[in-house]
Structures are given as C-alpha cells and as structure tokens.
Design brief:
single chain; alpha+beta; about 50% helix; 7-stranded mixed β-sheet; 6-stranded antiparallel β-sheet
C-alpha cells in the first residue's frame, strides 16, 4: 500500500490499478475511523486538555493508558506513512511521507519518553488528532484521485462481456476472449458492439460518442466499419470481426491514454523537482526551527511542537498531486471527446500555436466529392468513355475523389472495366493498363511536371477539384468534382482568429479552387498545387518566420510535415489510431475538434499553473506561521491545525483538477 509511489510515479489507470486504488481508499477509511474512536479517550484523558477546559479526570496509571492508546494510533493509524517513509528512503527520494513519518515519530517517541521519566510534557493528544486528520485528508483526496481514473474506466468498461457468434443457423453466446478474426457476430438493437468489424448484413444507426466525441448517431450500412464499444441503435446487424482484443480500436485508445499519462512533460518534471526541494527545505527549516526556539530558551516540548508543525504543513503532497491529477483527467476526458494525446508536451504547448496549417480535403471540406463536369479534349474519347476508363483505376481506392467518380459511374449504370498493372504515382495520381491502353488519372501538378498544357476551360470559378485523364501519354479529358465546405469550418476559424491563430491551407488542388475555399472561409493564406513533400517546406518556412506551427493532416502522406510541425495533429484517422508521427490524433475530421483541442490545451495548462501556484504559495505562507513568526502577536499554529491546512490544500488541488472536466468543448 505504497501511497507515495501512487502519487508521484503515476496514477494507476488500468483495471488492476483501479481496484488497488479502491482497496487503498477502504484501508484509509478504516484506519481513520479506528484512529478517530481512539482519539476521543486520548483527548479526554490528556492533562493539557483537562487544564484548558477546567475539569479533572485522572485514572490510575493515566500516563500509561495514554501511552497505550497513542501507541495503537501511531503504529496502526500511522502505518501508511511509516511504510511510505521506508519506501522513499529505499529509493533515496525523500518526500511527503518522510516529512509526515518524521513528524509523527518525533512526537510519539518524545511523548513516550516523558511517560517513562524524561522531564517534559507529552503531546499525545496532538499526535492522535494529527494522524486522524492526515488519514481523513488522504482518504478524501484519494477519492478525488479515483475520479481521475473513472473517465478512463468508462472506456475500459465499454466492451460487453459476451458476443453472439453466428455459425450457420445457430447463434451461440461466447465470451469476448473466445472471439476470433473473421467470426460473424450478431448485434441486436441496443447492444454494445463487441469487436471492430465490417457489416455483412443489415443497417442501423450507431452511437459512437464515447469513442469519437461525435454526438449524433452515425448511419452504418453494408460493408461499412463498426467500432467495438459503440452502441447499436434500432437495427439488427451481422458483422464480420476484423480486430479483437489488443488490436481493437478501443484497446489502442486505452493503451495510448495510459502511455500519455505515464510520460512526464516539462510541467510535471518541474513539479517533481519543486516537491523534492520543498522536502529538503522543510527538513532544514524543521530542524532549524527546533534549534532556534531552544536557543531562545523555550521548553523542548514547545520547540518540538513548532518543528512537528513545520514538517506536517510543509508536506509537498499538494505539489506532488498538482500535475499528475490534471494529466490523468485531461488525457482520459480528451479520449472520450475524440482527441487522443500521444505527446503530452505537445498537448500542453498547443496553447502557444500561432499558425495552423490545414490540409483542405476532408478537414475544412467534407471530403464528399460529387462529379460536376466531365469534359473530353480528344474526339476519340467521348465524355462517358473518359469516365468509364477513369473508373477502372479508381474502383479499389478509398480516396474521396475516387469515391466521387465511382458514385457517378454507378448512377449512370456504366460497367467498370478491369485494370492491369495498377500503380500509384506518389502524390500525383494513379496509372494502369485498361483494355490495352495506358491510362493515368492525375493531378494538375503531374501535368506541370510533364510539361503538358492544361486546357483553359478546365477550371471554373467554383471550388472544384479537377483530375486529368491521360491515355497513352496524351491528355484525353478531365473530370471536375466539387467538395462541400464543412458547416463547422467557419465556426472553428472564428475561434482560431479570436485566439490570434493564423489559419492557412495547403492543398494539392488548383489555384482557383484553393482561392475559392480560402475566400469563403476567410483564411489568412493558402498554398495551392502542393505535393506532400512540399508541406514540410511550408512548415519550415512558417517556423523560420517565428511561428509556432500546428499541422493537420491525414497522417499518411503528411507524416514528414506532421513530424516537422511543433504540434502534429492527425485527423480523420477513424479506426486507425496508430498515426505514428502525430502528437495528437483526432478521431473525427471536424475542424471544431481542433479548436476544442487548443482551448482544452490552454485550460489544462491553466489548471496546472493554478495548482502549482496554490501548492507552493500555500507553503510559502504556512511554513513561517508554523515556525512561529507571529509568536509575539500571540498567534501560534498547532500541529493539528497545521494538518487541517495541509489536508485542505491537497483537497483543493484535487477538486480544482476535477473542474477541468467541464472545460472541454467550451467555446471561448
């Protein structure tokens, strides 16, 4: 039951940590109540308390009764602190437990010595109240810490325990662990989806809000993916299992959140260093206080009381909790809102972002392309033939442009020919042999590289994306598609502008399309006809101008730019959460999520600063009071009152961290 380890290393977040934490809370609660019951008679039988209240009730062997009761309180109630002290000594890392253990030990052994003949006055009653208050403070604070792990516990508990496996006409209920890849499972209305998979039968609306932050239920039909942990609506589904256990989306999210909580950012290292120094300072001031009061001619018991109070009040507990609690809450709450933090420092530094570079398709726009124009420039290939040949290359691609072209082909009930020797032209398009012809579907950048003239009427003033079709090396025609601007984009850009963040766009699209989107959204600038490798140069150029750059991309071809940016944000990763180069992953492609991310990053940083200021400021004021600087004006802080203040400080820090939960998604 190593409490110090729990506070300063990391907040345990998995199921085992959660149960261990509950056991610790129950243990502290039990120790508190037993200590409190024993504190009653200790107070009642203490001569100092009797003098104060003006009554006399001394039993035969009164000092020995007090000693016996106080020994139980010290060894039983004080055990967590003594054990924590030993753990800190072994690690050569003195901290909060060292201070508490030294304070209660000095008080106990000095008071015990007075019972057995040492001249002086015991303060068993101070010892008992001190331990009782410490246990109460730790118990309340640990309950608050548990709240930090509850957010992640919700994610952990989202998977159902069983799945309905379909074997021919038989449906069998099996344990989730027994589920295998390619099994067919039945998901009844209202049930949780037990594994990631593809719908093979049925359609329904699924609630994915706990996984992606998307509040509206999402319609899912044949051949579409479902995520384990989401909740089925009113339709029955049959699903072919793709990922189970460790490979599932939910598991990856949980692992990522746990990893993020374990990594220490600059802020946490700062608070750890401050806590360590505070321990050394407290020990020095504690013994210094003892020596000073003795030199001033005060009784040893008084000087000792001052020293004990200093040590108790200076416990760097609030400081040790200040950052880990905020970390635990921010990462877990972020995950529930579709923001997955891989790099804690980048998340905390998101408050510094001064320039935001967007990839257009699927982020600022819906990525839902519809064909607006098909134009042949070669009389040998009519418009429909251009579309038919292009569709051969696009049929197996999931790129939004490809999806738009295939949709048009299906509407026209055109049969799609079979491609051979299919090959991608990195960042510029695709090529294949179709019916003996060499067909390429490419971007305007490819035409420029190959010195092929782009037809004058290829671009309209509308925000259209144009792809060109080359047959046997010659331009045969082009297809224009338009992509609707997301309604949330304008709202998000207002938030960025309000926070003094320049919004820029880098797109592979032509100048006209880029300008149309930029003008409509009121962007600060755009880069058109950009190839993936050029995005790195744009990020470097912005950094060269002193900007703190966040880059958003789809995490595949944008990997170098995401790595180069100060904060790399992978968007629209859906069920693929392992975007290795990004610092932060957004499950949805919604630009408002990026606005939320930046605002939540700011709120998280503010909470850390508030907690650090409170934890250190409290000590700066309380330690001199405990040492007795106001003695001449008649104000003296006793150990029990010191313990109340120390516990209060810790609880305030814990509650303040909890308030962070209300900050996500708030528009500022």
């Amino acid at each position: 039951m190593d409490h110090s380890k729990m506070d300063h290393d990391d907040i345990p977040m998995g199921m085992e940590g959660h149960d261990h934490h509950k056991m610790m809370i129950a243990d502290f609660k039990k120790r508190f109540w037993i200590t409190l019951v024993l504190t009653g008679p200790i107070l009642f039988l203490s001569p100092m308390i009797q003098d104060f209240f003006g009554y006399a009730f001394l039993l035969p062997g009164n000092p020995y009764i007090l000693f016996g009761l106080s020994s139980i309180v010290y060894f039983y109630g004080g055990w967590p602190f003594l054990k924590g002290f030993w753990s800190e000594v072994k690690k050569a890392s003195p901290g909060m437990m060292t201070l508490i253990a030294m304070a209660i030990s000095v008080a106990y052994f000095y008071s015990s010595a007075t019972v057995f003949g040492l001249p002086g006055v015991d303060f068993f009653w101070e010892l008992a109240t001190l331990i009782a208050i410490m246990l109460l403070g730790h118990w309340i604070e640990m309950k608050s810490v548990l709240g930090a792990s509850k957010a992640l516990q919700l994610l952990v508990s989202m998977m159902p325990a069983e799945a309905h496996r379909v074997k021919g006409d038989v449906i069998e209920d099996i344990k989730l662990e027994a589920l295998l890849k390619d099994d067919i499972i039945l998901i009844k209305p209202g049930e949780k989806v037990p594994a990631d998979g593809i719908i093979t039968e049925g359609s329904s609306y699924l609630n994915e809000s706990m996984l992606t932050g998307e509040s509206k239920p999402v319609k899912k039909e044949l051949n579409e993916k479902v995520i384990g942990g989401s909740v089925n609506g009113n339709g029955s589904l049959k699903v072919k299992v793709e990922h189970t256990g460790k490979d599932s989306y939910l598991n990856k999210v949980i692992k990522m959140v746990e990893d993020a909580q374990k990594t220490k950012s600059k802020m946490q290292n700062l608070s750890d260093r401050a806590a360590k120094w505070l321990t050394y300072i407290a020990l020095a001031i504690g013994f210094g206080t003892l020596a000073t009061w003795l030199m001033l001619g005060f009784p040893f018991v008084y000087a000792l009381e001052r020293m004990v109070t200093v040590m108790v009040i200076a416990c760097p507990h609030a400081l040790g909790l200040a950052i880990p609690l905020v970390v635990a809450i921010s990462t877990a709450v972020s995950a529930q809102n579709g923001l997955l933090i891989r790099n804690r420092t980048a998340f905390e530094e998101s408050r510094k972002i001064s320039a935001l570079l967007f990839d257009k398709t699927g982020t600022l726009t819906k990525g839902d392309f519809g064909v607006t124009r098909i134009k042949s420039v070669d009389s040998a290939y009519p418009d429909q033939e251009i579309l038919r040949l292009a569709s051969a290359l696009e049929q197996s691609s999931e790129h939004p442009i490809a999806v738009g072209i295939i949709k048009k082909v299906k509407e026209g009930k055109i049969s799609i020919p079979k491609p051979e020797r299919f090959k991608a032209i990195t960042g510029k398009g695709v090529e294949a042999n179709v019916e003996g012809k060499e067909v390429k579907v490419v971007s305007p950048g490819y035409l420029k590289d190959e010195k092929i003239t782009i037809p004058e009427d290829a671009y309209s003033d509308a925000a259209e994306t144009v792809v060109f079709i080359l047959i046997d090396g010659a331009l045969a025609g082009y297809i224009a598609l338009s992509d609707e601007i997301r309604p949330e984009s304008a709202e998000a850009i207002k938030v960025f502008k309000k926070n003094n963040i320049k919004v820029l766009m880098a797109t592979g699209d032509n100048e006209k399309t880029a300008k149309a989107v930029s003008d409509k959204l009121g962007l600060d600038g755009y880069y058109a006809e950009v190839l993936p490798h050029q995005k790195v140069e744009i990020v470097k150029e912005l950094q060269g101008k002193g900007e703190f750059v966040a880059m958003t991309g789809d995490g595949v071809n944008d990997a170098p730019a995401l790595a180069q940016a100060n904060v790399g944000i992978a968007v629209g990763s859906g069920t693929d959460v392992a975007a290795e180069t990004a610092d932060i992953i957004l499950v949805n492609s919604n630009p408002q999520d990026i606005a939320n991310l930046i605002l939540f990053g700011k709120a998280t940083y503010q909470k850390m600063i508030q907690n650090l200021i409170w934890a250190t400021g409290y000590n700066v004021i309380a330690i001199p009071l405990a040492a007795g600087v106001l003695y001449s004006s008649g104000f003296v802080l006793g150990p029990a009152v010191g313990a109340v203040f120390m516990s209060l400080s810790t609880i305030i820090v814990a509650i303040n961290a909890q308030l962070l939960k209300s900050k996500i998604g708030k528009k500022e």
